[in-house]
Amino acid sequence: MTATADTEAPWHIVGCGRMGGLAARYLHAAGWPVVVVRDTSATVLRLAYRDADGRALSTLELPVRPPRALPTISRLLVATKTPFTAKAIASLTLSPEATVLRLQNGIGSLDGLLPAGCRPIEVVTASAVKSAADGALTVVAENETVFGGTPAPAWWPALQSRWPQADWQTDIGPAQRAKLAVNAVLNPLTALYDVDNGALLERADIAAEARHLAAETDAILSALDADWPGNTLERVYEIAGATAANMSSMRADLRAGAATEISAINGWLVDQAARLGLATPAHTAIIARIRARSP
Exposed site from 53, 78, 168, 177, fewest CB < 10 Å? Predict the structure, then answer.
């Protein structure tokens, strides 16, 4: 029997950019109404999707509603950049038992922002999406996406049937930490030096900084998780090689003069280290360098 969605309540999306737009495609395919939350005069958002070879995949036309025009929300996907999370949540009215999917980099951006009865579900993805000059979303890769943090809800089979390589892990912590570890090295270095990801394999000066950041990262995560593999540098080089010509999100943010997600990535590690009594000179320094160049 094919899983079907419970369509009584729509999914509302804040941050319908590249990853939010990809999630909208899967939620819609699973049978849910999808509403984009955006403070604009536009009433419809048209999303066009292409594959990595430029072939058209599909298009969506989603209703757009400003926060002030929304009813109480029971299903929410948060895909904003982490610096804008608090402002986005503050403008919404969530039901006491709302389900909230967090599709963002870093860890902890929703802490203290949700009503007490809400059910937060963490989402960690390795998929890749690019924005074309005409606004279309190019789906570069549909890789594994892990959901979790609580037992899977009743609607999970419907979404899993439409979200490629979707998996549920009750303990999503290892997946979160694994992605954060790579981002904490790759993102700030490529941003500061304004280079593609592959430069970490080519430039000795960047590689030296990568080693220091990775060593601190492994020390912190090993103190938090006895099963941490301690392979951050190896994973950074693996991802840098696989995405050599790509631009990291933090580099794109600095280039655009936008706020970065440094606090939710490297800042989270520094906060954990302070609690554990560990020194973080490399992460502390790189946070300061990024903040000196961003709003």
Answer: 53
Q: How many residues does the chain have?
A: 295
169-198: pLDDT as tens digits: 999 999 999 999 999 999 999 999 999 999
- pLDDT at position 163 is 98
Q: Residue-wise over 234-255: b if at least 16 C-beta within 10 A, else e?
A: ebbbebbeebeebbbbbbebbe
pLDDT in tens, 47-87: 999 999 999 999 999 999 999 999 999 999 999 999 999 99
Ordered alpha helix ranges (H), the chain: 18-29, 85-90, 156-160, 173-193, 204-224, 232-242, 249-255, 266-276, 281-291
Which pair of tokens denotes residue 148?
């979790």
Please, which pLDDT band fits residue 295 given cuts at 50, 70 and 90?
confident
Cα dist. 37→17, 45, 47, 122, 131 in Å?
A: 12, 10, 15, 20, 20
Helix (H, G, I), strand (E, B) or coil at 223: helix
Give CA–CA dist 45/48, Å, rounded. 10
Rounded CA separation 212/28 (Å): 43
Per-residue tokens: 27: 């939620």
